[in-house]
Write a structure and sequence with these properties.
By secondary structure, the protein is an alpha+beta fold. The protein folds into two domains: 3-161, 2-Layer Sandwich (Alpha-D-Glucose-1,6-Bisphosphate, Chain A, domain 4); 164-324, 2-Layer Sandwich (Alpha-D-Glucose-1,6-Bisphosphate, Chain A, domain 4), CATH 3.30.530. Helix content is 25%, strand content 42%. The chain has ten helices and 16 strands. It has an eight-stranded antiparallel β-sheet. Strands 9-10-16-15-14-13-12-11 form an eight-stranded antiparallel β-sheet. The longest helix is centred in the C-terminal third of the chain and has 17 residues, at 308-324. The protein is elongated. The two termini are 37 Å apart. 26% of the residues are buried. The model has no long low-confidence stretch (mean pLDDT 92).
Amino acid sequence: MPVTDIVTDPQELTLTITADFSAPVERLWKVFTDPRQLERFWGPPGWPATFTSFDFTVGGRALYQMQGPNGESELCGWEFTRIVPGECFEVLDGFVDESGTMHDNVVPAMRMVFSFQSTTQGSRLNSVTHFTSAQALEKSVEMGMVEGTRAAMDQIDTVLIDLREYAQGKGTRTEILDDTHVRITRLINGSRDDVWRAHQDPELLKKWLLGPDGWIMTVAEPGEKVGDSFRQMWEQDGAPDTAFGFEGEILLIDAPRREVTTEKMIGTDGPSTTNDLQLYEEDGATLITLLIEYPTKELRDTILATGMTDGMETSYQRLDDLVGS
């Protein structure tokens, strides 16, 4: 985890974050000043940002939208007030309206200073947020700014290195983020469009989403828009009494980038999980990131204990072969 320290100072009205990385400072600078790379981590898991404009000049502005798993949306912006290339930049950060004008409806705009320096191991980021009042600082902390910022910064390592270097040959990886959130990643050698299509086309789904060998997918009914239901069922080949399946509802769809759904086992009354599927393409390869939110830690542990990761790897290997062919 790159974040090494987070300090809230009620006297100075600041929140200071220190994070260390193995990449050189030039690479870290690029990550924070290229909107396409910023989008990969600016926002905690489940709330990715999409930058719609980025004028990296003093007096210029950057606008971005953060969208939650249930379709919630927040419009935000930066106004660049100081830039020292390769060393630091400062922004006025706040919520904006549809026209891009900052407002104080949620919290007042904050001054943020991002400083970059070389270290013997690579580079260090020092980010200081200045608040206008103790009330603004307290409200931001209550809204989860500390936890959200840590979670966002902890995603930077995956951006700093080449995508293939990060994920090639590592198979399906499962990370426990907290008591109710798990992140699963897998690199597929193919375009994002092809990987997206393989998740949406019923005939393609039946070719790869099978889990362990010996199972077949008997029902593949993906939804097409927000509010639609989906349904999937499997059984062991020749053994219909082993049938089981999942169903849910589409909460958000942004083809071919993101789809968020609920999911629960068919025939059960238990609570659903929320599955946030995101696809990112680089150099002809696509990183699948699946963020799963469980209703309880106990259910999370029960599901992980079934060997879920191994079953997903078997399916993703088929997907890799299918897309590659």
